[in-house]
Backbone:
């Protein structure tokens, strides 16, 4: 019993399965010109409720955010980006692939 509970708890903490997670890909305005721009987005958006993972791509000018839709939504994520000075357009909003 203890072992099953421990394994279940560990799986939840590690996010194994990723059930229900979504990924939104945004294009920011102004553009990300440097590593500092990328870091500004990553450092600030990691505090948004429900955000699980943030990836940036300067070449494509895209920010990919994996989030838990039971805790947040695209509008809240876009509002978080606006708070740090970036208007955004949604490129994709899709279900995250499970492992």
Residues:
């Amino acid at each position: 019993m203890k072992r099953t509970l421990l394994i279940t708890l560990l799986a939840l903490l590690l996010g194994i399965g990723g059930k229900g997670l979504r990924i939104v890909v945004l294009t920011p305005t102004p553009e990300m010109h440097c590593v500092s721009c990328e870091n500004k987005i990553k450092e600030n958006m990691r505090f948004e409720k429900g955000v699980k993972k943030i990836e940036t791509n300067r070449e494509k000018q895209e920010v990919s955010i994996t989030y838990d839709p039971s805790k947040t939504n695209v509008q809240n994520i876009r509002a978080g980006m606006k708070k740090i000075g970036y208007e955004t357009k949604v490129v994709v909003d899709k279900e995250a692939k499970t492992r």
